[in-house]
């Protein structure tokens, strides 16, 4: 076996070049792959910080090389338990609030399925009879209205606010789409205007009484997520990622932002986890799951792992996401609902 990984290599370089080594670091009790330390610290340095004996370090390096070469390691493969994690602190629930809970759906990474997961989570709550709204916080690339097939111009509500659109299933939706003449019209706005649009979507829209307002966000950690974290009475954040190592690393920036701003991560969703053939053969198209790492870094439960499902894409494109059912989705929905402690 070629000794490709040595103790003086930087941890992040190791996991970037050999993603399979993440589980070895974790299996040996080294969480440095996900924290800032790993960006500059060597394997030996990380081991020193965690008081490894020379023998333990030697075994770690041996296992890292084994994992990099696709060989078995001394670390048992661990699967993130779906629906289990560190217990949550209870979300705030002021009975007088018109909108009882505001939950943002975030990811540092683009295209991992934030909007789709937002839609699915909203549908799962609605199916429980909850009053649900979705604030499409992706001002320049809105996609929620399309997914729910909601079209129309904004109108004034009886109380003088903006009336949100309603999906077929009764979910209230507010999206920048409503203000555009054509769906393909670009919104060429700078950060402050985006922030102010999000604040207005929250305060000037006549949401009425809602049990949940879900906020779909664009990727990254810039204006829109910052505004939502700082200007909205946010109760929790759901993090969405895909199994790709790169996605996990970029998502980590978002996790760090939420933690720095003292937000509460209520759960993690891994999307596009696998593809299943009609004969039930599974293919991990984007690679093995990184959910264990996300769970350990966030301290929040894994709500579910969604497969790549062409039926789901078609329903979204047709504006009929509310008609979607699948086993994986049922599991995600059940975990999300029980995480939010809804009395059925
Ligand atoms: N599990 C899935 N199965 C099939 N298609 C999916 C799945 N998840 C997402 N998609 C499709 O992939 C595309 C990207 O998803 P989505 O728009 O939800 O990602 P996003 O993270 O919100 O992207 P952005 O960063 O641009 O906001 C969409 O066309 C969506 O329908
Ligand atoms: Mg999106």
From TrEMBL:
Entry keywords, A to Z: ATP-binding, Hydrolase, Iron, Iron-sulfur, Metal-binding, Nucleotide-binding
InterPro entries per UniProt: CHP03980_redox-disulphide, DUF1858, Mrp-like_CS, Mrp/NBP35_ATP-bd, NUBPL-like, P-loop_NTPase, ScdA-like_N_sf, YlxH/NBP35
Record-annotated DUF1858 domain positions: 5-57
Lineage: Bacteria, Bacillati, Chloroflexota, Ktedonobacteria, Ktedonobacterales
Gene3D superfamilies linked: P-loop containing nucleotide triphosphate hydrolases, SP0561-like
PANTHER family: IRON-SULFUR PROTEIN NUBPL
Record's protein name: Iron-sulfur cluster carrier protein
Pfam families (alphabetical): DUF1858 (PF08984), ParA (PF10609)
Stated family: Belongs to the Mrp/NBP35 ATP-binding proteins family.
Residues reported to bind ATP: 108-115
One GO MF term attached to the UniProt entry: ATP binding
Species of the source: Ktedonobacter racemifer DSM 44963
Known function: Binds and transfers iron-sulfur (Fe-S) clusters to target apoproteins. Can hydrolyze ATP.
Gene Ontology biological-process entries: iron-sulfur cluster assembly
Regions annotated as coiled coil: none
Quaternary assembly: Homodimer.
């Amino acid at each position: 076996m070629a000794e490709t990984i040595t103790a003086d290599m930087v941890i992040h370089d190791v996991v970037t070049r050999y993603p399979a080594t993440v589980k070895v670091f974790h299996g040996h009790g080294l969480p440095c792959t996900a924290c800032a330390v790993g960006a500059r610290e060597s394997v030996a340095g990380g081991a020193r910080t965690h008081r490894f004996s020379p023998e333990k370090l030697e075994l770690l390096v041996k296992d890292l090389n084994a994992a990099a070469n696709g060989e078995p390691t001394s670390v048992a493969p661990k699967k993130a338990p779906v629906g289990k994690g560190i217990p949550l602190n209870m979300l705030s629930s002021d009975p007088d609030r018109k909108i009882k809970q505001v939950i943002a759906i975030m990811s540092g990474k683009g295209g991992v399925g934030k909007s789709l997961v937002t839609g699915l989570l909203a549908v799962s709550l609605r199916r429980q009879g909850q009053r649900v709204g979705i604030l499409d916080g992706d001002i320049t690339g809105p996609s929620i209205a399309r997914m729910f097939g909601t079209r129309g111009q904004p109108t004034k509500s009886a109380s003088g606010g903006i009336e949100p659109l309603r999906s077929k299933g009764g979910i209230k939706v507010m999206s920048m789409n409503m203000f555009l003449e054509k769906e393909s019209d670009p919104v060429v706005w700078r950060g402050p205007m985006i922030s102010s649009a999000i604040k207005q979507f929250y305060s000037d829209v006549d949401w009425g009484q809602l049990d949940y307002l879900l906020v779909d966000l664009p990727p990254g950690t810039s204006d829109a997520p910052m505004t939502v974290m700082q200007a909205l009475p946010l109760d929790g954040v759901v993090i969405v990622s895909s199994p790709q190592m790169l996605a996990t690393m970029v998502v980590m920036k978002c996790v760090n932002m939420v933690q720095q701003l003292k937000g509460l991560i209520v759960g993690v969703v891994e999307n596009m986890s696998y593809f299943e053939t009609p004969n039930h053969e599974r293919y991990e198209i984007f690679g093995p799951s990184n959910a264990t790492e996300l769970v350990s870094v966030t301290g929040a439960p894994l709500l579910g792992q969604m497969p790549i499902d062409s039926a789901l894409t078609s329903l979204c494109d047709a504006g009929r996401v509310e008609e979607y059912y699948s086993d994986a989705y049922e599991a995600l929905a059940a975990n999300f609902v029980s995480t939010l402690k809804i009395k059925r």
